[in-house]
Amino acid sequence: MTRLLTIADAISTHARLTPGKLGARDSHRSLTFADWDARAGRLASGLQGLGLAKGDRVGIVAANCIEWLELYVALARAGLVAVPVNFRLSAPEVAYILHDAEAGAVIAGPEFCATVDAIRSEVPLAKARFIVLGDAPHDGWRSYESVIAQGRADAVFPAVTQEDVCALMYTSGTTGRPKGAIRKHGGSSLIALATALEMGFTREDVGLLVMPLCHANSLYFGTTFMHVGATIVVDDRRSFDPEALVRTLAEEKVTFTSLVPTHYIMVLALPEAVKRKYDVSAVGKLMISSAPARRDTKLGILEFFRNGRLYELYGSTEHGWVTLLRPHEQLDKLGSVGREWAGSGAIRLLDPEGKEVPDGEVGELYSRTSYVFDGYWKLPGKTAEAFRGDWCTVGDMARRDADGYIWLVDRKSNMIISGGENVYPSEVEGVLGAHPAVKDVAVIGVPHEKWGEAVQAVVVLHEGQPATAEELRAWCKQRLAGFKCPAVVSFVADGDMPRTATGKILHRVLRQRVVG
């Protein structure tokens, strides 16, 4: 069997070839490739010393920090499976993921220990397998640094092949329950190579990771930089600061970053005097994704980043990268997500019977890539639904124009993208529907200048059971991550809710009524 290098192999290689080169940094510390390799090896050994064995799942709940990069490499070295958890989720949501993944250990940032402590009874783990990032241990937790200190530099690790699982990436589903997308080392390496090939990344690059490291975007780009030996800078601020971002781009001489439209809009809104303070001429490539971008936004990006070439991608945790709108196409094909990535295979748009639709007509988007995911964890039925032979879908609807460019119509049916975060209406509807005063509810996305889309709930109340918008929003905030909670709650009579003949709410019609 041909063996592809894992990210652990890649970091070891760079540690031999360029040991003193800066491999990664955040605002608190930095790692040469030699440091990175050594600490990841000791961390892998320390985790083995806690009784974790190849194939065990390790949940990670943390905001962006350099430790994510050490952890991904250490877990790959020991053959352990990373389960990155969105740190913005509520305690019940975190509990569901850790329980579903059958996590053998949980590693958390200090600010998330209370969240994990609140759900320990739902995730029965050995006390020694709760690890807090940093030096100061919390009650019932081992410190991250103590685990590294107990690791051995000469530890022996199991063989890890391209067929071994490297991560369970949990994605929300239309049922409201997250699904664990299985990613193997082979696919991880291939997407890194495809990204480097298409975008021309080399060891001379400096990549700034702003998107959460629990998300596929930062993981896939981070993996690419690990393979090619580029330097990674982690934006570890707890909230997005546009001036601080521009300062980092200038001071670190960043050559690439990936942002959502909201980030770019906030940067472009900075006063001209502020923007002129910083030299961002090193930025040669920029990625925009996760939501449509207006023409004026793209023009503003190109004006401010004068040496930057702008790319726009469409992809998913399951597919990996699918399409790319390249720099010379940004304005001519505004609104399109481009054509296939180099090496990504092909795209088919199919009708419900599995037949390809003609150009200009809408069909369900299927792609065939060498780095597609390997199914949903413990969900064979959902896995079967995602594939037609080698062709994979996540339910997105699109059309292809005569030039072969793809135009998304619906994002996973009714999915809402707010500030780069995916919000599934059915999940929010399930929470609101549990309120005793709510008879029926539909959740839609409405345009928002800053966030791309905002979440709005349209509610039908039971007769004689009043509830206010503030009460329902508070109900959601106790049960959902903040970005999923409705920004607006409006009320309609039962007869005014648009439905099919079978009573199913017509979300698209409702959205047209609300937005106009």
UniProtKB/TrEMBL annotation:
- Recorded GO MF terms: medium-chain fatty acid-CoA ligase activity
For this protein, the record's Pfam families field holds: AMP-binding (PF00501), AMP-binding_C (PF13193)
Q: Where is the AMP-dependent synthetase/ligase domain?
A: 14-377
Give the AMP-binding enzyme C-terminal domain ranges: 427-504
Keywords (alphabetical) are: Ligase
Write down the superkingdom of origin: Bacteria
Q: Which BP terms does GO give this entry?
A: fatty acid metabolic process
Tell me yes or no: is Metal-binding among this UniProt entry's keywords: no
- Gene3D superfamilies assigned to the protein according to its UniProt record, in alphabetical order: 3.30.300.30, N-terminal domain of ligase-like (3.40.50.12780)
Q: Which InterPro entries match?
A: AMP-bd_C, AMP-bd_C_sf, AMP-binding_CS, AMP-dep_synth/lig_dom, ANL_N_sf
Q: Which family does it belong to?
A: Belongs to the ATP-dependent AMP-binding enzyme family.
UniProt protein name = AMP-binding protein
Lineage of the organism? Bacteria, Pseudomonadati, Pseudomonadota, Betaproteobacteria, Burkholderiales
